[in-house]
Specification:
Blueprint (H helix, E strand, L loop, with lengths): L1 E9 L5 E10 L4 E5 L6 H8 L7 E6 L2 E2 L5 H6 L1 E5 L10 H5 L1 H5 L4 H14 L4 H4 L9 H12 L6 E5 L7 H18 L2 E5 L3 H7 L2 E6 L3 E6 L1 H6 L4 H7 L3 H8 L12 E3 L4 H8 L4 E5 L5 E6 H4 L11 H4 L6 E3 L4 H10 L5 E4 L6 E5 L1 H13 L15
Parallel strand pairs: 3-8, 3-9, 6-7, 7-8, 11-12, 14-15
Antiparallel strand pairs: 1-2, 1-4, 4-5, 9-10, 12-13, 15-16
Helix pairs in contact: 5-7, 12-17, 16-17
């Protein structure tokens, strides 16, 4: 756990970069520091590992005051990742990643095993990348190596200063997803500086919003920051579209999904027609409950002879708009718009069973409730109902 008690940084010219900052970051939590340029985000980060010395206050790491610790030993306990990566250009990837373990006195076999373990952890095959040099890597690959190096001796704390800021949008999105995957495995205590509100919402367990002079305006979960900004400054900073941004952090509530009729893939056409029972369409599922497609009255040949051969699967259309149950409302809305569909199927995360659907009206109702909910609501929005 990291705790900042009244931490202040005043420079010799009288400029105050950070003003009496009180902030606590729980063990295994990702805390995003956001705010305009010059608000003290990077200075705060550097004070935690004493690249910058605070002028006042205390910084506690697991109860220990870091201002009284040996700075070199302290930095070996804290991983540090910066935007420019800072890899040593004349060293191989393997040597770069091995930097801290070697400084810690590890023997060669242990260092080599750790390098390979870390490269695999960040998605780089050791046999392909261990012997390469930084100039032979893409920007995204260099950033992954930087993360691997920061994790060298398994530090409990990871400091990240706009690590994805210089990456193109496609690779930035990939690295963000990779970071979430990595954090789910290693569960580090992370302080992450970014100027990008969307990145903060996507990656953070909590967000700390700072304004000029290093004043903390608000700290809270992404739904809290978006749902109830504490000050006009926070409201302006997160943007007038914060209602839409809440879609990103609002999970799908499976209990509130709409449920169309369901027919088995092997059901005769007559049985499938009866299952419609006045509904416009029905989902077609296989014997494991997975979505095979969908049918409507026209596809089933309403009015045709009851003895007509064939099954529901023979007449089913493919369902192109679907999302896993773990998806957000934003994912569901994107699928709806991308496929110009009237509904989005929601499938089980593991078994891909058909759970139900979201429609434009239920998504709209969920968004209204999400925007209007109080800061204390951090769970999934309830769907369906007033559509």
């Amino acid at each position: 756990m990291i705790r900042l008690d009244g931490v202040t940084k005043r420079f010799p010219d009288g400029h105050v970069a950070v003003h009496a900052l009180d902030l606590e970051v729980g063990k295994g939590e990702v805390c995003m520091l956001v705010g305009p340029s010059g608000c003290g985000k990077t200075t705060t980060l550097k004070m935690i590992n004493r690249l910058v010395e605070p002028s006042g206050g205390r910084i506690l790491l697991d109860g220990e005051d870091v201002t009284r610790a040996d700075p070199v030993e302290l930095r070996r306990r804290i991983g540090y990742v910066i935007q420019q990566v800072g890899l040593f250009p004349h060293q191989t990837v393997g040597d770069n990643v091995a930097t801290v373990p070697r400084l810690a006195g590890w023997d060669k076999p242990r260092v080599r095993d750790r390098v390979d373990e870390l490269l695999r952890l960040v998605g780089l095959e050791p046999s392909r990348y261990r012997g390469r040099y930084p100039h032979q890597l893409s920007g995204g690959e260099r950033q992954r190596v930087g993360v691997a190096r920061a994790l060298g001796v398994d530090p409990p704390v990871l400091l990240m200063d706009e690590p994805f800021g210089a990456i193109d949008p496609i690779n930035r999105d990939r690295l963000q997803h990779e970071f979430l995957r990595l954090q789910s495995e290693v569960r580090k205590t992370v302080v992450f500086v970014t100027h990008d509100v969307d990145e903060a919402i996507k990656l953070g367990d909590r967000i700390a919003v700072l304004r000029g002079g290093g004043h903390l305006e608000q700290v809270g979960t992404p739904p809290e920051i978006l749902g109830e900004p504490a000050t006009p400054f926070v409201a302006d900073f997160v943007g007038a579209d914060r209602g839409l941004k809440r879609l990103t952090v609002t999970a799908i509530d499976a209990a509130g999904l709409e449920h169309p009729p369901v027919v088995a893939a092997g059901a005769p056409l007559g049985e499938a027609r009866r299952a419609l029972d006045g509904h416009g369409w029905a989902a077609v599922v296989d014997d494991r409950g997975r979505l095979h497609g969908w049918v409507d009255g026209a596809r089933l040949g309403e009015g045709a002879a009851g003895g007509e051969g064939g099954t529901a699967a023979d007449r089913a259309r493919r369902a192109t708009a679907w999302v896993p149950a773990r998806a957000s409302l934003k994912d569901a809305l994107s699928a709806l718009l991308l496929h110009d569909a009237g509904w989005v199927a929601v499938l089980g995360d593991e078994d891909e069973r058909f759970l139900g659907v979201l429609t434009p009206s239920s998504l709209h109702a969920a968004l209204r409730r999400s925007v209007g909910s109080g800061a204390g609501e951090t769970g999934a929005a309830t769907l369906g109902g007033d559509g």
